[in-house]
Design goal:
single chain; alpha+beta; nine-stranded antiparallel sheet; seven-stranded antiparallel sheet; 17 helices; 32 strands; binds alpha-L-fucopyranose
């Protein structure tokens, strides 16, 4: 079967949301592809607005007992007022991610273009611009190489000596110095708090190149290469020296070698997974396809492309050694971007990493764990200073410094202490997929300290249950006695996360043979957590009391955590709760829920978990129609990358889902996808899974074990006992399996 491999357009990008992204984890670039002038907007993941500050509110600890008492007494607004003074970070805001700047290329004497094409090849991770002008061909290639640590731009023409242009790096604000550092290299530098250098070296073939002022000027060349890199004081003492070393190596190696090594490196990750829906393939530009989809035309190939693009984006913005994918991955055009383009950790950052394991990119998960380590010391300080607790805590946002104090003055999200617990489930998930005990051992102290915080912080409510107080159910409000409230004693999502954290901790303690006494205490705490309950409207209750929601169509569906990404609710194990989750979804959607890209992506995952293929497909269509920009970036609005990653994971989950000892195949196969294949998907227990299906039925599945496996494969009414030794593969040929 053919695979969709390109995003392409027949005109240059008129704005940023049309430009095409490349990235090597640490650096990103957005290619506009103009004919007479090119703009390439640049990012480096550590260009942020300032340094670390201790923002822990010194009055939190004193006020905490009073806030708790007010909540117990039902005096919600008073508890909220005191929290606003005593719990809010001092100062209120964390740092913001920022653009690095732009590369501009102005071409001289370039005639009008014909046969224009701007594309992004997902098979090679190369953005290209090509056209004919004045009877000659012109081509530009832009790639972000991880091995060479540069963004490389290659310009060629078959017009002898036909390329003349000038080029420079620009950053409108906060640029302290610019100019040439040598006869072939120019740079810009600046930054608030974190100092950056971005440097560009040029190589001309034929013709001439000179550095003048802050420009590199090319005259009458037949080909030119530009190498760009950047470094900041976040990682290096002398960013300029690092940039010069990187650029020297790139020039010494030359473009052909750099290109070849880039493709090899990228394909090492990308080619592990292939997804194809039989009828795919269209010869229309991507923006046109999106438009036709909005008009109701089916386009299975676009879904295939969207999935492949999701993996491409994760590979491009999250590599070992880089910072984790932020709200915009690594691509950000602003000095003060929406929500600072930092890490919102009450779902958005977590969602960025939903595809990492199942889509066979465990390496790309690593920056998240590095960042958790960055948050660790700060989180211990926040626990101690704000709450007088041991262990490790963070609130609903963090920044480049791993800041763990609350962000924002009172919003329905700010004083939520569950994000570290949620991140620890990613540690366990990585272990479940890979079986890597060393990784688990290295990160066990984070899990231990996450639990330790709750050993000190949980309190008993009037029913003797252990609850988080104060807390919020992100990010909804409830009605109580004619007034709206946010703060509460315990909420469903918190209990669900804690159930999963405590289970994971107990399992890890057993696997590693460590902290067994504490694990017993954790088990006792787990037994006293409030259970998930069903409310009077037939849905899952969001709070421990059956409050009415202030926003019944709220984008957050926090109380369905146990359905996804958690696993305590499933149609197989808890059919009654699965029905209640369906009812919750129905109610939220009937009030306009799913209106942000990430919220819609979460819904697709819920539908996949519930085994509802057609519903999953419907919501994927809605995401593409209503929350997708011309360059296929997710549109919150504005651009926010979590929806891309959430939906990529969801597509995988529609086809393969797993628990420690069960694998479900084609559990949510939509009737619109009668035939297809997917290869290289990972399942818990260390399996790599490939499938083909036709007429809505599984034909063949193969399983390769990276370590000994023993479990059951389930597809519709068919079951298979699977026992594999390390390295072994089993092929299951199924001829008459009705799935769904
Ligand atoms: C949370 C969400 C918003 C947005 C922001 C970055 O606050 O509720 O929709 O995604 O994070």
């Amino acid at each position: 079967m053919q695979r969709e491999s390109q995003l392409w357009y027949n005109k240059p990008a008129s704005q940023w949301n049309h430009a095409l992204p490349v990235g090597n984890g640490r650096m990103g670039a957005m290619v506009f592809g103009g004919v007479h002038s090119e703009r390439i907007q640049l990012n480096e993941d550590s260009v942020w607005s300032g340094g670390y500050r201790d923002r822990n509110n010194p009055d939190a600890k004193t006020a905490l007992p009073q806030i708790r008492q007010l909540l117990k007494d039902g005096k919600i607004s008073q508890a909220e007022e005191l929290s606003r003074y005593a719990l809010t970070g001092t100062p209120e805001y964390q740092r913001a991610y920022q653009t690095l700047g732009d590369l501009f290329i102005n071409f001289q004497n370039m005639p009008e273009a014909a046969d224009y094409r701007r594309s992004l090849c997902l098979g090679e991770a190369i953005a290209a611009v090509s056209f004919t002008a004045g009877g000659h061909q012109y081509r530009r290639e832009v790639l972000a190489s991880a091995p060479a640590d540069v963004i490389a731009i290659r310009l060629t023409t078959n017009n002898p000596a036909g390329l003349s242009f000038d080029t420079r790096l620009v950053r409108n604000r906060l640029c302290e110095t610019t100019g040439a550092v040598s006869k072939d290299t120019i740079y810009i530098s600046g930054g608030e708090g974190i100092k950056f250098v971005c440097a560009m070296a040029g190589v001309a073939e034929g013709g001439e190149m000179t550095a003048i002022g802050e420009y590199l000027v090319f005259r009458g060349v037949s080909a030119a290469t530009l190498y760009i890199t950047a470094a900041t004081s976040f990682r290096f003492d002398n960013p300029m020296r690092i940039c010069q070393e990187i650029l020297q190596n790139a020039k010494d190696g030359g473009f052909p070698k750099l290109r070849e090594e880039h493709i090899k490196d990228y394909q090492g990750l990308e080619s592990r997974v292939a997804f194809s829906l039989a009828k795919a393939d269209s010869n229309l530009p991507t923006d046109k396809r999106l438009e036709l989809l909005r008009q109701g035309q089916a386009d299975l190939g676009l879904m295939e492309l969207y999935f492949r693009y999701g993996r491409y984006l994760l590979i491009s913005c999250s590599r070992p050694g880089s910072l984790p994918a932020n709200l915009q991955g690594v691509w950000c055009n602003d000095f003060l971007p929406p929500w600072d383009s930092k890490y919102t950790i009450n779902i958005n950052t977590q969602m960025n990493y939903w595809p990492a394991e199942i889509c066979n990119l465990p390496e790309c998960h690593m920056p998240l764990f590095d960042h958790l380590r960055r948050m660790y010391r700060n989180g211990q300080e926040t626990a101690r200073k704000m709450y007088g607790a041991r262990g490790f805590v963070a609130h609903h946002n963090t920044d480049i410094w791993g800041d763990t104090a609350p962000q924002d003055t009172y919003t329905p999200a700010t004083y939520w202490v569950m994000s570290v617990a949620w991140f620890c489930l990613h540690i366990f998930e990585h272990y479940e997929y890979t079986g890597d005990k060393n990784f688990l051992a290295q990160n066990f102290e984070l899990m231990t300290d996450a639990c330790l915080f709750f050993a000190d912080f949980l309190i008993e409510n009037a029913s003797g249950q252990l609850v988080v107080s104060p807390t919020v159910s992100p990010e909804n409000r409830y009605w109580l006695d004619g007034a709206q409230g946010t703060l509460c004693e315990g909420c469903t999502m918190d209990s669900q996360i804690l159930h999963e954290l405590f289970n994971a901790f107990e399992a890890t303690s057993q696997i590693l043979g460590k902290e067994q006494a504490f694990a017993a205490q954790v088990a006792t705490m787990r037994a006293k957590l409030p259970p998930t309950s069903i409310g009077k409207n037939g849905g899952i209750m969001e709070w421990l009391q059956d409050h009415e929601e202030a926003e019944p169509g709220h984008r957050h569906m926090s109380h369905l955590f146990a359905l996804f990404p958690g696993s305590m609710i499933s149609p197989e194990a808890t059919p009654e709760f699965a029905d209640a989750a369906r009812q919750t979804l129905k109610l939220r959607l009937s009030h306009g829920g799913g209106h942000t890209g990430w919220s819609r992506a979460w819904i697709i995952n819920f539908r996949a978990r519930l085994g509802e293929g057609d519903e999953a497909h419907f919501n994927l269509l809605e995401l593409l129609k209503n929350s997708t920009l011309p360059n296929l970036f997710d549109d919150h609005p504005p651009f926010q990358i979590d929806g891309n990653f959430g939906a990529t994971a969801a597509i995988a989950h529609m086809l393969v889902q797993s628990t420690a000892d069960k694998i479900y195949l084609l559990k949510a196969l939509p009737s619109e996808w009668p035939a297809g294949e997917i290869s290289g998907i990972r399942a818990k227990g260390g399996l790599t899974v490939s499938l083909t299906w036709a007429d809505g039925k599984l034909e063949k599945a193969s399983f390769t074990a990276s370590h000994p496996y023993c479990g059951v494969v389930i597809c519709g009414d068919k079951q298979l006992e699977l026992k594999l030794n390390e390295g072994e593969t089993f092929e299951w040929i199924v001829l008459s399996c009705e799935c769904n």
